[in-house]
Specification:
By secondary structure, the protein is an alpha+beta fold. It is 48% helix and 24% strand. It has a 5-stranded antiparallel β-sheet with strand order 1-2-3-4-5, with helices on one face. Strand 2 and strand 3 form a beta hairpin. It is elongated.
Amino acid sequence: MITLEIKMIYLINIILFAVVIYYGYKNYTLTKKKVTAEIDKDWLRLPIPKYETPRFEDFDKDHSLLKDILESIKLEDWTTKIENERSYSLSDRKTYIIELYNPSNTLKVRSRLYAYDGKVNLASFNVMKTITGSALTTGNVSYNCDNTETSTLVISRLWGYILQHHENIYSETMSG
């Protein structure tokens, strides 16, 4: 059996070990503070940048630019170019790339919609300010397609162009 004297020796050793750890930690933190203070005297510390990129919706909360562009598309009869994106998967997913150009060719809207299992989803929606007569752009706004308000506004406007595209293909096939 362990005697009372041996128990006391174990207890004293544990207490001494805890004291050594405590003073070692204190010495470490004081040394760290001293090194940090010396670095702050000799060096200029710059702020760490935020890694989150701002989204356009943060600045235009009521989607006024998006609504204005969609209204302009409807009123000004923008030029439409629709392509069926090739899908090499075995699914029945249809993907459409829609490009719209305003009459003065200063704005270009590029969007990607896909239809799958009877649902239509918005994959991307970008508005680009173009330089007339070139393929260069001077500005770009990309919308968050996960936002239901944005996707509902865009899909309701652009899906009509896809339907019209399929009607034109059907009428060309029937007349041929």
